[in-house]
Amino acid sequence: MQANRARYVIGNWKMNGSQQHVAAFFDRLSQVELPATEMVVCPPSIYLSQAAQILKPSSQIKLGAQDVSAHPPGAYTGQISASMLIEQGCRYAIVGHSERREYNKETDADVAAKFLAAKLAGLTPILCVGETHAQRLAEQTDKVVVSQLNSILSHHGADVFEGALLAYEPIWAIGTGLTATPEQAQAVHHLLRETIGGYDSSVAARLPILYGGSVKASNAAALFSMPDIDGALVGGASLQAEEFLAICESNK
């Protein structure tokens, strides 16, 4: 049985959407009784203000950013600070997504700095960890994800994860149509919780750990049935209101 942890479904729209899509998506969600899970949507930052204007402050649906700067406001062209995101209605921020690590060459140290900047500013950071297909085939999954986690744990301890979220996203299952089996995902989630538990077992027990990797309505329930999987970080399926709602409905 799963511990009494908060359960989440977080939609990462990536570089997709439009003003029309934002309006239609949130209009559809406003017409239904929302599932009893924490719901977060992360549109491109340019649409955060529009989404915040549509959503009421009391809405069950919260907004998140797909990235956040490690720096306070200043001379950092193209970056967006945590305080700016909060001003736009954000409550959450994804840090260390595999696409940021790969395409923007973000290191574990870069990700740790963003995690801390978000946390100190009052955002809930969503730390992403995960391995490539080659690393999984080489049986390096455990080593890779623990190393990514330890870049924060070893310097700041487990307390920094109080009020944060962790997401395991096997890179080989993102946008490929492949997904880890529930048992494969559970094994890594358990390892992550055990690793944090080595620093503080109570923090580890309370920390929601989400799975991200081609999650859709057809496989969500099986993933959510695992004892250490507390929700999902959803990519492409989160752009479709009905599919997103169906995934959320599976995570009550």
Automatic annotation (TrEMBL):
Reaction it catalyzes: D-glyceraldehyde 3-phosphate = dihydroxyacetone phosphate
Any one Gene Ontology BP term: glycerol catabolic process
One GO term describing the cellular component: cytosol
Record carries keyword Cytoplasm: yes
Entry's transmembrane regions: none
Record's function text: Involved in the gluconeogenesis. Catalyzes stereospecifically the conversion of dihydroxyacetone phosphate (DHAP) to D-glyceraldehyde-3-phosphate (G3P).
Name of the protein in its database record: Triosephosphate isomerase
Organism: Candidatus Berkiella aquae
Gene for this chain: tpiA
